[in-house]
Design brief:
Layout lengths: L7 E2 L5 E2 L2 H13 L2 H33 L4 H49 L3 H6 L2 H43 L1 H7 L3 H38 L1 H6 L3 H52 L3 H4 L3 H42 L21 E8 L9 E8 L4 E6 L5 H8 L7 E8 L2 E4 L5 H4 L3 E4 L10 H6 L9 H10 L3 H6 L16 H13 L5 E5 L7 H15 L3 E5 L3 H6 L2 E6 L2 E6 L1 H7 L2 H10 L18
Parallel strand pairs: 5-10, 5-11, 8-9, 9-10
Antiparallel strand pairs: 1-2, 3-4, 3-6, 6-7, 11-12
Helix pairs in contact: 1-11, 2-3, 2-5, 2-11, 3-5, 5-6, 5-11, 7-9, 7-11, 9-11, 15-17, 17-18
The structure holds adenosine-5'-triphosphate.
The site of adenosine-5'-triphosphate has 11 residues, from α12.
Length: 618
Amino acid sequence: MADPKTRSKGQDGAPQGSTWAALRRFWPYARAHKRWLWLGLWMIPVVAAMSALRPLLVKQAVDTDIAHGDLIALRVTGILFLAAVMAEFLATAAQVYALSRAGHATITDLRRSIFGHVLKLPARFYDKTPIGNLLARSTSDIEALSETLAFGVFTILTDVAVILSILVAMFALDWRLTLVSLAAAPLLWVIVAHFSARLRALQLEIRRAQSVQSGYLAEQLAGVTVLQLFGRERAAVQEFERLGDRFLRAVKTANWYDAGLYSVMDGVSAMCVALLIYFAAPYLFEDVARSGVTLGLLFAFIDYLQRVFIPIREFSAKLATIQRAVASLERIYSLLDEPPEARIGSGADPLQGWTGGLQVRDLRFGYREGAPDVLKGIDFDIAPGEVVAVVGRTGSGKTSLGRILTRTYDGYRGSVSLQAPAGPVEVRDVVPDCLRGHVLMVQQDVFLFNDDVAFNVSLGEAGLADDPARIEAALRTVQAWDFVQERGGLQFVVGERGRNLSAGEAQLLAFARVAARQPTLLILDEATASVDSMTEHKVQAAIERLLRGRSVLVIAHRLSTVRRADKILVLQDGVIVEQGPHDVLLARGGVYAELYRMGFQEETDDGNSGAQPPVPAA
Ligand SMILES: Nc1ncnc2c1ncn2[C@@H]1O[C@H](COP(=O)(O)OP(=O)(O)OP(=O)(O)O)[C@@H](O)[C@H]1O
């Protein structure tokens, strides 16, 4: 990871390194497509040479061919001129094609790397990084790069080569006319510097305004149901317009400066031509042998001047594009520098033959360094095949416990050891990929992808995705097969976040994910969402089936689940205050009995009353 101390923060909060360092680090991505890059680079001298050659041919036609009345030579010069035009056109076309092909292929690789990398980042990273930031990095930052790769870095090299070749040709032809032609250069420099500094600031403002507006759009769309339910659509549109106005204001000013720069440059180039004609005119009436100035030479210089102004005018805009791209690169690098989870292990699976026994001793855990622990010295065991329920008020640390057992968060103290046949294995020593082959968690908030039922159960896992019989069996286990069949089977698309399903049905699909994989230890965070009594009955039956035949730690909200458990852990403020079976804890009349009285009392004894109240909030 890059040393943060060696980087300072620039505009937009991007760390600033040197432009070359940023571009050098980019090379490994571009290297895979270097054949196209080389082709693009080789075209640069061709374009530059042809640019300088054409005015020379005009001079040849006027001063030699026409002056000597040589029609054949004039025709040959004409053909050469056409060939030079064709060569320049073909070289430019090849260059644009090769560079944009290399650029887009490189960007595709980089985009894949970013996506692959962020998927491996730990939960702590997501706690501090809004998803909007990540989206900006993989969309607008990548676009800025793409623009630069296709048009910035290499075309600027072509521009430099064209300017240099024209200057060399001009000096070789006549140094006095060259100096006169370049008399306006300092003025030009001042104008370009002023306009481009302003344009650069405006471009930055445009990008900021754009990202604020798209962030607002994304959030409002995600919460569209809330807006509609509360009749806030109009207000949202007004705010969107207000944000759009900021963007439009910046664009208008930038357009003004852009137009200003172009017309001022046109004016300056016309001034240079006028100056040239004024200076050269007397020589035209002198003896050519003495003055060296001919009509053809004048034509060539006018042509050169017009050619040299185009790349000069665009030079600053391209430089600004490169600067933007470097800022984007820096932001992308800071993301790529985030250390990923060590996922892939080497060697044999240390949990081979593990039957689900677990021993937790003096477990302590805090989310951030210096912040108070949320788990404060916890001890408990789970025997193979045992169902252990965790209950406690909101914020007591139940979910955190599940996160430790699945290594969603690292950095616990104490011991969480899995009793494998070859000896106890600490959870922190098992790579997540391996651990999650044995320990799975069903979260309280079900997330379904906008895809069909088959994908939502298999998540595209090889061996499962192509085995519909296994997926169907999992759906049958959790009693979801009937409703899936009614909706048209495994290919039924559940909609974004499962909006085409009821809350209970979505939950059954989440259970089916686990049933299809048969983990040795299941962590189940029961949902508190109320569902209709019919679905509730199905959910309870599904949970009952999931609990069978494996070790389970269930964060329980239903009386039926708590009663079914072999043992109950009562968590309070990060500490286990009571531990034992339901009847024993109830008889004790302590914290559990209080929770029971407040939370579960409305449920009938058969645990089959329909929607169950959760354990109450503190
Ligand atoms: N990602 C996080 N970063 C920092 N603190 C967190 C994070 N997640 C949870 N906490 C804090 O840790 C404590 C325990 O939270 P946890 O989610 O484990 O409680 P819980 O018992 O599962 O609550 P609930 O029943 O409401 O789900 C709470 O004080 C919570 O604010």
